[in-house]
Amino acid sequence: MPQSIVKLKGNTYYIDSAVNIGLISDDKGNTIIIDTGLDDDMGRKILKFMGEQNLLPSAIINTHSHADHCGGNSFITKRTGIPVYASYFEKQLIECPLLEPFYLFSASPLKEMKNKFLMAKESNVNHIREEGEIEIQGIPLKIIPLFGHSPGMIGVASYDNVLFVGDAFFSPYILDKHGLGYFTDIKNTLKSLEYLKNLKYDYFVPSHGDVLEDPMPTIEVNIKRINEIAEKILEFCSEPKSREEITAYMIDIYKVKLNIGQYYLTSSTISAFLTYLTDEGMMTIEISENNLKWKRI
Q1: Residues 16 and 2 sit within 8 Å (Cβ to Cβ)
Q2: Quick one: what percent of the chain has pLDDT higher than 90?
Q3: How many angstroms separate the Cα of 109 from the Cα of each of 97, 123, 248?
Q4: Which of 44, 54, 59, 223 sits most deeply, having the most CB atoms within 10 A of its CB?
């Protein structure tokens, strides 16, 4: 539950919430919003908190298209008319939210998957930004590609030397709570984590978890967890196993709390690991008993 706007440094702030919301202002109070939370209610709270601090909404940047990061777009843009920025891939899902449950289910999704946790309200993305230094409403920023958790996820760095990293990494508490984090691309996730090790910012702001001055220990915990999951999959696949068998095994190992949506999020993550392990030459695929099965090499 958000409490208030917290100043980090200079004109860079965040709203401490289930999803940390970034705010980057100029000296006149014109403010860029980094992510907008899950729904209209969060969008309403963002505008309320900003109004209390005389911060004027100028633009939204979505780090990625997951519903808890862009669900407040619709409310805020209807109230203010401000533009939205995102990467090319994420734009498609923000503008057509049905695509998320559709690709998770790989067909027209079950009605149980058509909820606000997997489908934000649709909103337009007015500008595409992938990487590099930009200026929005006179406010200088740097866009940093952080692909992996989502295919086109970006980070946003303020001129106060604060980096908002989206879901590039998770706190140890979040990892322990959920066991299996959500990933779409393991190789790119690892690349992004290694890249983050070399960046120098005063503060790193993950979307979930505490603001960090030194992200290195948390990054290492994330890398360790990814490698642990990969090794558990390899150990289980000493004999050929289907994706469904591997998913069920990993759900049991990590005590994932299931509903229909969470099952398909977990299955998608397992698919990402199977792609990674196969592409890296650690697993092979065979067709057996009318099913695809993976086996450790």
Answers
A1: yes
A2: 96
A3: 12, 20, 20
A4: 59
Interatomic CA distance for residues 19 and 167, integer angstroms: 10
Report how far residue 100's alpha carbon sits from residue 221's, in angstroms, rounded to the nearest whole number: 28
Q: What is the pLDDT of residues 163-191, one digit of tens each?
A: 999 999 999 999 988 888 999 999 999 99
> In angstroms, rounded to a whole number, what is the distance separating the alpha carbons of residues 118 and 97?
8
Which residues, other chains included, contact 189 with Cβ-Cβ below 8 Å and sequence gap of 6+? 147, 148, 149, 168, 183, 226
Q: DSSP characters for 186-230?
A: HHHHHHHHHHHHT---SEEEESSS--BS--HHHHHHHHHHHHHHH
Q: How much is the pTM?
A: 0.96
d(Cα 179, Cα 296) in Å, to the nearest integer? 23
DSSP for residue 113? G
d(CA 74, CA 78): 6
CA distance 99 to 94: 9
Beta strands in the chain (DSSP E): 5-9, 12-15, 21-25, 30-34, 56-61, 84-86, 127-128, 132-136, 139-145, 154-158, 162-166, 203-206, 283-288, 291-296
pLDDT at 2 over 60: no
The answer to whether the beta carbons of residues 130 and 81 sit under 8 Å apart is no
Which are the contacts of 9, defined by CB distance < 8 A and separation ≥ 6? 160, 161, 162, 202, 203
| 8 Å CB contact between 155 and 143 | yes
Identify the residue whose tokens are 């919430």: 17
